[in-house]
Amino acid sequence: MGNASWEVVRSTNQYVLLRDVGPWDKYMTITNAAEQVVAALAKWLGSRRLLYYDSEGELTELLVKDGCFTGFAPGKLEA
Asked: What's the predicted TM-score (pTM) here?
């Protein structure tokens, strides 16, 4: 199974929002490949938050510190 398959939904000064696109019989989910996703985006991400819609459509945040994945948090977008 390959790395996660995702697309950028929105990119702002505050955050980058991804969507997990699968198919999950060929690709890992963003949840299962969090370290690789963060590593792929770290330089471009800068200090912005990294959020994603997972394979269930739930909004989740990938916590990033110094360009490395550090955990998950419930995703919240400010209006």
From this structure: 0.91
